[in-house]
Amino acid sequence: MKLTLKQRAFADFYIELANATEAAKRAGYSEKTCYSIGNENLKKPEVKAYIDERLEQIESKRIANASEVLKYLTSVMRGESVAEIVVVEGEGDGCSSARRLLKAPDEKERLKAAELLGKRYSIFTDKLNVEGSIPVIIHGENALEE
Q1: Mean pLDDT, to the nearest integer, of 72-92?
Q2: Residue 34 near residue 21 (C-beta atoms within 8 A)
Q3: Yes or no: is domain 5-62 CATH 3.40.50.300?
Q4: Strand partners, 95
Q5: Which stretches of 63-97 are DSSP H helices?
Q6: pTM of the entire structure?
C-alpha cells in the first residue's frame, strides 16, 4: 500500500518535530482527531517504513562512510585537496592585515594521510597474522604415555 499525501506529510513533519500530534495537525488532519491519527499512523507498517527510510537517508548524508573517508585521505596524500588558511601580513607602521589563501596539504599532512591509509590496508605491520593449526608433539621422558 502506498502512502497518502497526508500520511507522507505526517511522516515528514514527525521526523522534523518528533511529536505525532503536532505532525498530524501540520499534515492537515482534524484538530479533534490529530492525537489518535498521529498514534495510528506511527503504528502503520508503511508509515513506519517510510520514516525509517527517510531517517536513514538523512543520517547517511550527515555521517561520512568508509569509502568517503578513504577518498578524502587519498586526495590529501596526493596533494589534491585544498584548505583555506588565514595569513596575517605586516603593512608597515605597525599595521597588518589578514587575508585568506588556499593551500595544498604540506608534507606532514600528506604523510599523516599516507600513514592512516597504510594502517587501513595493513601495509606497515611488524606482526604477521598466521592462521592454521600446527600439531604439537612432545618427546622425552616427561611425555605422557598412552
Answers
A1: 93
A2: yes
A3: no
A4: 92
A5: 66-77
A6: 0.51
C-alpha cell at 64: 561520512
The segment(s) of the chain belonging to CATH 1.10.10.1400 are 5-62
Q: How far apart, in whole angstroms, are the C-alpha atoms of residue 18 and residue 58?
A: 15
Among the listed residues 109, 90, 112, the one whose alpha carbon sits nearest the alpha carbon of residue 99: 90
For residue 118, the cross-strand partners are none
Identify the DSSP state of 26: H
Helix pair 5-17, 34-43: axis angle to 10 deg: 90
**Helix or strand or coil: residue 69?**
helix
Residue 85 identity: I
SS3 87: strand
Q: Which stretch of DSSP H or E encloses residue 107? A: helix 107-120
Q: Which residues pair with 102 in a beta bridge?
A: 84
Residue with cell 603593512: 91
The answer to whether residue 146 scores a pLDDT higher than 70 is no
